[in-house]
């Protein structure tokens, strides 16, 4: 552990690095969530056919994809209830 006399120097030198790595991690998580959303939408479109079962399954995939959509304003609880 650093002695208190070196805390200030540590915060000054490590602070931007920590913030940058946190921002990078958030960016990676956002990109990954976007990829999942796109994959679920593509799968829902591929699965959808004329039968009622495939239409229902496709609708479920679309609703689940809302969980990963960064622009979605619907709370997860409501999405789970509607599925």
Account of the protein in words:
- The chain is mainly α and 83 residues long.
- It has a domain at 57-83.
- It contains three helices and no strands.
- The longest helix has 41 residues, at 7-47.
- The protein is elongated, with a radius of gyration of 21 Å.
- The mean pLDDT is 78.
Topology:
Layout: H1 7-47, H2 52-65, H3 76-82
Helix pairs in contact: 1-2
**Which secondary-structure class do the elements indicate?**
mainly alpha
Instruction: Name the helix and strand elements from N-terminus to C-terminus, one letter apiece.
Output: HHH
Unreliable stretches: none
Indicate the overall shape: elongated
Estimate the strand proportion.
Answer: under 5%
List the defining traits of the structure above:
mainly alpha, 83 residues, elongated
Quick description:
The chain is mainly alpha-helical. It contains 3 helices and no strands. The protein has a domain at 57-83.
